[in-house]
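Q: Hi! First time doing this. I have a protein sequence and I read that you can turn it into a structure. Is that right? Here it is:
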Amino acid sequence: MNSIPDATRLTAFTKKIKSNQLSLLVMGCSLATITTISLFYGLTRPCVFGECPQINQAEQIYEQTEILSKNNVSDAEITLVKTNLELAINLLNDIPFWSNYHQESSQHKNQKQQQKDEN
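A: Yes, that's right. Below is the predicted 3D structure, encoded as structure tokens:
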């Protein structure tokens, strides 16, 4: 008679272990998925590897804006200058802090922000 309760306890214990293993497996897979997605996101941001075209594009926009601002006479052209400067700033905002180009982009961004505030 004593063996029946022992068998029941053993079965309950075995089910509990399997449940814990399943929980650990689900948590491990979830953690691996989140890590993989985060790593993929981080590595696909602009200017993380190789060249940084955003800085070059922002500089081109900035140069075009300087030409416009020297010749501006109308409110429409001033609005266009501000819009172009905002576009250049937004390009530079896309560069993440873990990029090697982040410090350079921050300097360019500050310059463009000052110019935009002056206009």
